[in-house]
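Retro notes - structure team

What went well: the batch runner handled both jobs without manual restarts.
What didn't: labels got mixed up in the shared folder, which is why I'm recording both outputs here explicitly, each with its sequence directly above its tokens.

Job 1
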Amino acid sequence: MGKTFDMPDVIAVFPLPGALLLPRSRLPLHIFEPRYLAMLEDALKTPERLIGMVQPNAIPGRDGNGLHQIGCAGRVTQFSETEDGRYLITLSGMSRFRVVREVTGFTPYRRCEVSWTGFERDLGRDESDKGFDREAFMNLLSRYFTARELQTDWESLQEADDELLINSLSMLLDFDPEDKQALLEAPCLSTRRETLVTLIEYSLRGGNTEEIMQ
């Protein structure tokens, strides 16, 4: 996905704990609150159609906005309306951003001034992970899915390229919001994969769950 427009300085932000969007990945969302319906309507009027996904911060920063500093902006690429006025949308991850400050205004949803500096790589081509031991990773993943009694399409996982595999699992697996934030902030794909492996291994050892592997 190449950069086809200038990234705006101010974007709407959707604070949602545990929801992770990564560049070149897709996140389905269910929009039903009036303020976020207004956010979607306004986003669709802009050429960029961007919405910034950012997690609330349990430890608010000095500016007191209660948001993590780093989020990821997605372009609305699909949307459909249900009969009762809700929307099912898909955000395609464009680039991470750093929150500069929250912008006050008349919108019912939150907006932030953001900086894209340092995340130029996000708007480029797919990343590769040269140090990826795929066989060992899939074995670890199989143990994790068995322990959690989860089902998946293993054939699709095997066929997915490195970035799609790592990013999809980072988004989909049930980790704590702070762990999701660590996956988001990983500077490159190999670091994200290493973080993901650490989280999976931690869970298999018992982690903060009641499931302790024998």
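Job 2
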Amino acid sequence: MHFASDNTSPVPPQILDALIAANHGYAMPYGADAIMAEVRTAIRETFEAPDAEVYLVATGTAANALSLSLLCPPWATVFCHRNAHIEEDECAAPEFYTGGAKLTLVEGADARLTPEALREAIGFAARGGVHNVQRGAVSITNATEHGTVYSAAEVSALSAVAADYDLPVHMDGARFANALVATGATPAEMTWKAGIDVLSFGGTKNGCMGVEAVVLFDPAHAWEFELRRKRGGHLFSKHRYLSAQMAAYLKDGLWLKLAARANDAAARLSQGLAALDRAELLHPTEANAVFAAFPREAHRRAQAAGAQYYLWPMDQSLEGPGDVPLSARMVCSWCTTDEEVDALLAIVRGD
């Protein structure tokens, strides 16, 4: 019963096989390998963006921080949700890679920005001229940190607000595939057609061993990104092992199939919890994460049985009255089985 995160999962055989195949013989380093050319073509075709530039890094933090460093100077701010991953889980990497830019945190239910809240935050910034932090960029997390998603129309509405202030827009797509499957949008509809300038296109949380793509829909940023990636220590020497993962991930729609399986498992878990008298869903389950509260005694049973998930927030204790509800985050991966889901539900029910 593994629900701690989707990054605890194993690697699908298709990706491992691709790594083994890439391991034969020699290949040019630093992204000059032949597989990277295939990846670049595949992403351009997938996103209907023939002029897009594509770069690979090994971590989502690198993808996000390097992307934002292109869009936001040190004296400016990135507008993002209070619960955005770049705020909660990246140890100030965006601030570091931008050279000191600020994050301006915007409220919104279920970790989603609204155009109204975003407009208010942007309008409040830079009101004192040189004395204030300046307006820099907007970052949208899709799927969000609370397991919800933005539709393509919602992304367009947020991008329109940014455009009113001539601000570029970044999308943190660590779970982009999950959001895409949930909404039925095409990759183009969810990104550049909706006003996204730079996408962090996730692979690791959806089954890859460790690879993320940065997709620049404006190729004018390409050379600067290459310099920043190298200067930041994220240009892989044996790059073919990143390329091989991404090539296999994209082949025959594997990335969407993996995300669909994770989303389906989360839906099964969410529906099962919602049917219980003493459980409550805390956010809509729209991708592959479930947030729910249920009695402490059920958490104790689950953890004693070996179920892995996080109490959310993490500072809650299993010690205390058993009938007190504790909140938790449970994340499904590409290989979460119905049997795992049903086993956890049985424990929570007390069967």
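One thing worth noting from job 2: The domain at 255-349 is CATH 3.90.1150.10 (Aspartate Aminotransferase, domain 1).
We'll revisit the folder naming next retro.
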